[in-house]
Here is the input.
Amino acid sequence: MAYIAFQLSEGYEPPVWPAQQDTQRITMHLDFEVVDLPTAVAQALELGAREADHQPQDNVRVLLDPAGHPFCLYLDGSNG
Here is the structure.
């Protein structure tokens, strides 16, 4: 069994994507492979994520969780 636990941190400053000088840096980044990128993005948005303004690749969507942590959904390489 595997799980990921999260906890609140008082005074938390969300990271900035893409990174900028003198701002909070990303401390962890999760990538999730998906087989249908538009559907996966829609599901993440439904659950409270938002799309980042900066999108560096066509087959990857950078999203931010409600606390501002960036994560990526990327297209399964076997589908094109």
